[in-house]
């Protein structure tokens, strides 16, 4: 028994070390998920801005409005289009942890069936 004295303390330190390493490995994933939600929100807002402009509620060009709002939210407008019915489709992108991610959204009047 004398040879095992203090082994509980070493085991405890090893467990704490493993937990800390696991936390450091998982933390960036949480940041990336948060950035993805921000990006999707920016896409939604840009699509709404483009649709409002296309409908005539706001003066200007729909894609210029979407681009301005996307820039204000810290993302880049990758693609923008408005169909003849006034539905806007946008795609925004950003770089998170060195990886480019994108999100898209549509807004406008409902489709008639």
From TrEMBL:
- Where does the record place a coiled coil? none
Q: Does the keyword Transmembrane apply?
A: yes
InterPro entries given in the database record: Rv3654c-like (IPR021202), Tad_N (IPR028087)
The reply on keyword Transmembrane is yes
- Domain Putative Flp pilus-assembly TadG-like N-terminal, chain residue ranges per copy: 6-52
**NCBIfam families, alphabetically?**
tadE_like_DECH
Keywords of the record: Membrane, Transmembrane, Transmembrane helix
Name of the protein: Pilus assembly protein TadG-related protein
Q: Which Pfam families match?
A: Tad
Transmembrane segment boundaries: 12-33
Q: Which domain of life is it from?
A: Bacteria
